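User: I'll paste a sequence; please echo it back and then give the predicted structure.

Assistant: Echoing your sequence first, then the prediction.
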Amino acid sequence: CNSCSLAQEQIMGKKIVIALGGNALQGDDKLPTSKDQLDTVLKTAKEIIALIKADNEVVISHGNGPQVGRIVLASEFSASVTPVIPFPESVAMSQGYIGYHLQQALRKELKAAGINKEVITVITQVLVDEDDPAFQNPTKPIGPFYTEMEANILKKDRGFAMKEDAGRGYRRVVASPRPMDIIEKKTIISLLRSDVLTIAAGGGGIPVVLDKSGDLRGIPAVIDKDFASEKLAELINADILMILTVVDHAYINYRKANQKALGRITVKELKGYMEEGQFASGSMLPKIQAAIEFTEKKRGRISIITSLSGAVEAMHGTRGTIIVNE
């Protein structure tokens, strides 16, 4: 790892958006049950509370891939007895139940730490552009697998975009547009000013567009969690965007003999590695892109990519990839 030392004043009293990856919600050795998720989230809460104890102001965002997939799956399989839940509503449901688990876990750890702080989940809508090019090429798979015949029926009857998925069958695919704005941003800022620990933009947010009358309308899409977290951090004027994933660092030459962990690195250097194609499009690349976008927009901002267990050490500069401007 490159030398990555942060000054003491950067560790204390900062506004941090923490973007939790799937491993922070569902451990690899756990079953996809509510009980197991809550057990995992209790461990996650301990790491978050450690950052709060260091006098940092924290806002939490999270992914929802497995959870929203199970909601869609359950809805599709019960379609013969109850109406199918639309995808924007499925995202809202996942925000609610993941937020509920996080609220329980965080409240428990706050109490244990002797910190008097309320915790709340904001069901968050994220504005996207209906003319975003992503809508012309849906790529994000959601829901169950279907046979080719079933896929053709869904395309005809319900207008779904369907694509074959690595020989395993056909799946519905939706667009993954870039976030433009967060509808509830003023509420989130107000909660922060009231010292409320806030969970927002879960699963990338509920994707919405503006209709001709200026009203909001949900739209089937998946907003990348890392880009939504960057937009959240930008809008609340955060100092640090911390993206927590399954690895301690971003790497170049990943899983090769000459693999190298990236420690403290400038935006310029990181862009060079990105242009070389060092980061996989389905995993690390959006994290790198979000970190660069956040860091380069304002002097003094920092982005961190590390594991959940490395969060506290990353704030001391001893673990993680730390992206800076200079």
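Residues 226 and 286 are 6 Å apart (CA to CA). The longest strand covers residues 140-146.
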